[in-house]
Design a protein that fits this description.
The protein is of the alpha/beta class. 46% of the residues lie in helices and 11% in strands. The protein has two domains: 2-373, Divalent-metal-dependent TIM barrel enzymes (TIM Barrel, Alpha-Beta Barrel), CATH 3.20.20; 378-430, no CATH class. Strands 3-4-5-6-8-10-11-12 form an eight-stranded parallel β-barrel, surrounded by five helices. Strands 1-2 form a two-stranded antiparallel ribbon. Strands 7-9 form a two-stranded antiparallel sheet. A hairpin with a 2-residue loop joins strand 1 (31-32) and strand 2 (35-36). Helix 3 (73-90) runs parallel beside helix 5 (109-130), helix 6 runs parallel beside helix 7 and helix 11 packs across helix 12 (346-373). The radius of gyration is 23 Å and the shape is globular. The structure holds D-xylulose and cobalt (II) ion.
Length: 433
């Protein structure tokens, strides 16, 4: 009997239902600003937290006893059955995986590739049968001890080459499965201590590695987007993909800013000392907004706790800036979120996603109402309206200089400061959430 035998597919039952396994806000087909909710949110379930993670923490071992756990191809097939059963119950359209989540690591690189290809065949059949699609694939370049000093940024070129082989195989599989994106998260691309680190060399290695990924994408005709997932630290003390702005600088330095976009994760933004919407708005302003890993961190612990999102006013603001940036194209919301380790029942896995998905749906409704009202957009436009004047446009277009502006300012009346109206705007937002 299936692990989820007694769990029915989750349905929309409306805001007032007391059914804990029903959607209260997520109606996939509901039209919002000319698109269905499903098209706006492009929800993905991730393999690693939901089907691989055993519930360990730094002090304790496995708490989850999933029948598909094991390091064999047969276990990997059973895991794929459980994953696609979960997607069916939740009615979600996408999934994401690392190479090592999907298939066991073999004794050699060739065996690793063969294992991954075998599971790709299983995925292909299940995807054709269910219509579930791949939001993105990625390679795990951080768990194995060979990567303890980094992958692309390793001092040993043999590890750099090993990582290249792993990424090539993961890109091949992502391409074969019609993935909408390919993600690189540099968990170990950073350093523990400067005392043993040649930072300039490591950054050059990273740029070269990324360029090779882009070159390979074009060589195989992969039409998805290459995404970098910024994170400031954890597992390494300093990570080179610190935040969106840092990643943009790296991309520009290697001429890749039109080739690579970012996958922004809520918890990573918080670890970097930013808000999620700050990272989204930065990416949009720089033209590199790609996709989101949605979760939340515990605000007290200072760790990347990867909890399921449950605060819809916070999510609404993030979605507001996504809508203002034109919404997702190849990206979507990937639930990079994991259960707490005491949540050991099958229902916990489903209920966690139901709550997270409803949080997104409710956030989308609030965000769309904010966009449609236009109050915030109008207030911002009004704040910058002075720039519509001819002389101000000329200044921005490069047709004035410090001397001509100084002459103008000296003969003009003293400029009058205006209110930023923050509290009024915060009150305005609260009308919609
Ligand atoms: C780690 C993290 C990863 C990436 C994929 O914090 O977010 O799971 O999303 O490697
Ligand atoms: Co992530």
């Amino acid at each position: 009997m299936s692990y989820f035998a007694d769990i029915e597919p989750v349905r929309f039952k409306g805001r007032d239902t007391d059914d804990p396994l029903a959607y209260r806000f997520y109606e996939p087909g509901r039209q919002v600003m000319g698109k269905s909710m499903a098209e706006h949110l492009r929800i993905a379930i991730c393999y690693w937290h939901s089907f691989v993670w055993p519930g360990t923490d730094p002090f304790g071992g496995q708490t989850f006893e999933r029948p598909w756990f094991g390091d064999t191809i047969d276990a990997a097939r059973a895991k794929a059955d459980a994953a696609f059963a979960t997607f069916r119950i939740l009615g979600t359209p996408f999934f994401t995986f690392h190479d090592r989540d999907a298939a066991p690591e073999g004794a050699s690189l060739k065996e690793c590739r063969a294992n991954l290809d075998a599971i790709a065949e299983v995925f292909e059949a299940k995807m054709a049968e269910t219509g579930v699609k791949l939001l993105w694939g990625t390679a795990n370049l951080f768990s194995h001890r060979r990567y303890m000093a980094g992958a692309a940024t390793n001092p040993d070129p043999a590890i750099f080459a090993y990582a290249a082989a792993q990424v090539k195989a993961a890109m091949d599989v992502t391409h074969r499965l019609g993935g909408a994106n390919y993600v690189l998260w540099g968990g170990r691309e950073g350093y523990e201590t400067l005392l043993n680190t040649d930072m300039k060399r490591e950054l050059d290695q990273m740029g070269r590695f990324l360029s090779m990924v882009v070159e390979y994408k074009h060589r195989i005709g992969f039409s998805g987007t290459i995404l970098i997932e910024p994170k400031p630290q954890e597992p390494t003390k300093h990570q080179y993909d610190y935040d969106v702005a840092t990643v943009f600088g790296l991309l520009q330095r290697f001429g890749l800013e039109r080739e690579v976009k970012v996958n922004i994760e809520t918890g990573h933004a918080v670890l970097a000392g930013h808000s999620f919407e700050h990272e989204i708005a930065t990416a949009a302003a720089l033209g590199i907004f790609g996709s989101c890993d949605i979760n939340r961190n515990d605000y007290q612990s200072g760790w990347d706790t990867d909890q399921f999102p449950n605060n819809h006013p916070e999510v609404a603001l993030a979605i507001y800036y996504i809508l203002r940036a034109g919404g997702f194209t190849t990206g979507g919301f990937n639930f990079d979120a994991k259960l707490r380790r005491q949540s050991i029942e099958p229902q916990d896995l489903i209920a966690a996603h139901v709550g997270g998905i409803d949080t997104l749906a409710r956030g989308l409704l609030s965000a769309a109402a904010m966009v449609e009202d236009g109050g915030l957009e109008g207030a911002v436009a009004d704040r910058y309206a002075g720039w519509e004047a001819d002389w101000a446009r000329e200044a921005l277009a490069g047709r004035s200089d410090l001397a001509s502006l100084a002459a103008r300012a000296e003969s003009a009346p003293e400029p009058q400061p205006r209110s930023g109206r923050q509290e009024r705007l915060e009150n305005w937002v609260n009308r919609f959430v």
